[in-house]
Amino acid sequence: MKNKVVYAFVAIVLLAGLVLSACTPKPTAAAEQKNEPVQLKMTIWGSSSDPEVYRKRLDLFEAKNPTIKVELVYIPSDYAQKVQTMIAGGTSPDIIQLAEDVHGYSSKGQILPLNDYVTKYNVNLNERFGTGGLVAAYSRDGKLYAMPDRGGALILYYNKAMFDAAGLSYPTKDWTWTEFLDAAQKLTIREGDQVKQYGFAAGDWWPWWMSFIYQNGGQVLDANGKPALDTPETVEALQFYVDLVYKYKVAPSPTDYANLGTNSPDPLFAQGKVAMITTGFWNVGSLQQVPDLKWDIAPLFKQKKSATVMFGSGLAISKDSKHPEEAFKVIEFLTSEEGQMPIVEMKQDMPANLKVLASDTFKNTAWSATPIRMETMLESAQMALPLPIAPQWNEMQKVFGDNLAEVFLGKAEVAPAVKSIQQELEQLLK
Amino acid sequence: MKLRAKETLWFYLLVSPWLVGFIGLTLGPMLYSFYLGFTDWDLFNAPRWVGLDNFVRLFTQDRIFGKALLNTFYYAGLSIPLGLTASLAVAWLLNKPLAGMRIFRTLYYIPALVPAVATSLIFQRLLAPNSGLNQLLALVGIQGPAWLLDPLWVKPALVLMSLWGVGGGTVLLLAGMQGVPVEFYEAAAMDGANQTQMFFKITLPMLSPVLFFNLITGLIGAMQTFTQVYIMTGGGPNNASLMIVPYLFDNAFRFYHMGYASAIAWVLFVLILLLTLLVFRSSSAWVYYESEVKR
User: How close A8 gets to chain B, by Cα (Å)?
Assistant: First the structure.
């Protein structure tokens, strides 16, 4: 009997050994040799062609800074979950690509404020990225938490052939909703009860409807970050947005989308079923693969004022980074003119650096099958609306989605939904 | 070393991989999540003890959790009985001695092998307002709803989809049917029993252990529904198809409320435990085992 106890004990010790051996000790900073280059880790998301661009930019940096090496970790899906797991598991990346959820990290103290480094390295944020827009979005309580890196604005794509066929002049940034609606109506072609061609197409993605709210002088959060949605301006804007689908019938409803087998306007535009859509600069790349399509881009239309959404992404530094200063050097370079150029040269996206946006390299579109009016991007960057992002960004998305679902299905009134969003946001952000 | 002691050592050694897995990957995380259920934890900073706050909020303030709970009961309450009936009916048909029966059996089982993600994507198309199912309904003059986009019809649509996968339960029932001794039917036939009587008096009681098993696994599966909702509707429109596990997932991995999500997990665990116990309790009244003598 006694033996049993002894052997049980032995077994437990063996077990413990197994468990402990699985946890190998992490190399400590002290163990690193002085003359070896500093190793940094950087996480990015994106499509399969994106890592190549980042690598090119990092190579440029490493050529100038041989004492710093950056390892690129490409996470194609479930980015946030995986980055969180890395942080929680003690293998945090030094540099993290972030977008609208930046304050989900900043509010938990996961990423460092960059202001001291910005001052120390004499970076002129206004000159580099402009006022408002992304710098404001990535700041909280006066502290900047990410350097804007890619700065795509929501822009208008239009099918030139359809505009020509309807005898319409092309959209400009001076268009108001009146001209926009007029064009959309003339561009919608029906055959019986079937719509052959839609004038416009959007949906429930926040940049689509939010840009209308700000154009009409409404806002989601005020300058102090308090919900300020429940205004006649917001209701009027959303009503107009819904009317495009159900009253004027110039845009597809969720039901139409389901029937068309997609939930995005982008493929419909590429297939020549829609005359106007609003989306990011990335769509330029996919449209290159549709050679027969004649299209161009323009800044969004306006109503009481011009407004568009800047989404892009920024680069932040983890608080767990053992080399935050080196990490800042990296992101400072990546957001400089030189570090941003590959974004343009490799046709990846819109750079956040305004000088690059204004550069001839950016405006030169010889690579494109059809000429593109690249000035659109700089003009759009100048009409960026202050993004209403808070640490609870993802929960805000659910509040919007839940309350607007039936409005966008044409089954609920706008005003009560707006009131309900306002109340739920107040509850959430208090 | 004595043989007996040696054997004991080998026993622990050989089961240790499983024990490590169980303790490290199941029991440990479970106990940890039990603790987390009483905390506010954002995944990064230290968990903050909040006592029963999470549970109080779940049951008194969280309107969305209430909706998810009701939706889950709605879905389980419809899909389990329908699924059991359908799988029984299909098994009964597939038990007929017809030529080519093997092909039919294969065909009926295949859907159960298709991953839930693929099934969801197929059904997203089939349930589109003007395609698939609604075209069939139009043939008999019914104008079908927009299924996944209609708050009223999205849950029935998910139930309908669950019936596509009854093949798994069917296979077990079919095996059970073939295990019923032929003598029973012969004896019943001699006594003048008809097909219906034989089915209800012989087949059904003899199958009750399999039905019992299908009911328990079906119950647990339905309460834990995730993939279909996550892929097809995202819980929408306006949470009309939101269920407990997708809501748990949102709280844990989108909103970073790990403590709250752990509380939901434990509420779900207790709920499933109670329901399963209830079914077990009831089983003595309707499940018959061959060795058992009914009093």
Answer: 7
